[in-house]
Specification:
Chain lengths: 127, 130
């Protein structure tokens, strides 16, 4: 299958996911299945600690899969060590900065401190 | 050369591309399309461009420009979306969002560079319309 033609889609499903973020790189949005594209509308990081600031790093992980349009396999950050103060939230991606996640690509992240940051994402599964 | 009529669109493909320029500019690296200018009979709608500074200590400067193959009176031109904008360490700057999307016409392209090598990482998300 190939990157779907959005004009001729048969299915759009809304999807959300949430995790606590660990202190080593972990998969937060699993790799997009074949024949689908995700439109990522929201990524929010909440600091659940009442006392400790923790930074968040998030990157697109291509796992060796070329992007469409000759886009290659570069794993680029969408946030790098941005501090999230205690008892606050950071909108990393919002509707105005939404982006497509292509086949085989996912989002991976790491937090500075354990048991502090919660990851929430919401997107459209287009196929 | 034909200007694509968006009302009569047969296909739209969503794409995200990321690059960390390995040259400190100008003229920089292609951002959209990734390798060449926009092909014939297509138009690219760029919805998102942001840049991430992966240095933990040093601010760097980001530049993004739009090469317009047919700017005015059939002459080419360059439009700057950001030139030498400071990106603080460990932070992001949004240059294009769905509040201010741009179209790339045939033979146009979007390019980027930094005043540092392989430290600023650019993300672009766009639709290929044809």
């Amino acid at each position: 299958m190939a990157n779907p033609n959005i004009v001729q889609v048969s299915t759009i499903n809304g999807k959300s996911i949430a995790w606590n973020v660990g202190t080593s790189n972990g998969i937060l949005i699993p790799a997009v299945p074949t024949g689908e594209v995700y439109k990522i509308n929201s990524i929010t990081i909440s600091n659940l600690s009442t006392t400790t600031t923790s930074w968040i790093s998030l990157f697109r992980q291509t796992t060796g899969t070329d992007g469409p349009d000759s886009g290659g396999q570069y794993n680029g950050y969408i946030a790098y060590q941005i501090d999230v103060p205690p008892k606050s939230s950071l909108a990393v991606i919002g509707k105005s900065t939404s982006f497509y996640l292509n086949e085989g690509h996912g989002i991976t992240g790491v937090a500075q401190n354990s048991a502090t940051l919660n990851f929430h994402a919401s997107w459209e599964v287009i196929s | 050369m034909a200007v694509h009529n968006i009302v009569q669109t047969n296909s739209i493909y969503g794409v995200t591309y990321q690059v960390s320029p390995s040259n400190s500019g100008p003229t920089g690296s292609y951002l959209a399309p990734p390798l060449n200018p926009v092909p014939t009979n297509k138009v690219y709608k760029v919805n998102t461009v942001f840049v991430v500074n992966t240095s933990t200590t040093t601010d760097y400067e980001a530049s993004v420009y739009h090469y317009l193959a047919n700017n005015y009176n059939n002459a080419s031109g360059t439009g700057w979306l950001a030139q030498n904008v400071v990106v603080p360490a460990k932070s992001n700057i949004v240059m294009i969002s769905s509040d201010n999307p741009i179209y790339l016409e045939e033979n146009d392209y979007l390019a980027c560079y930094s005043n540092v090598v392989s430290t600023l990482q650019y993300t672009v998300s766009y639709e290929i319309i044809s």
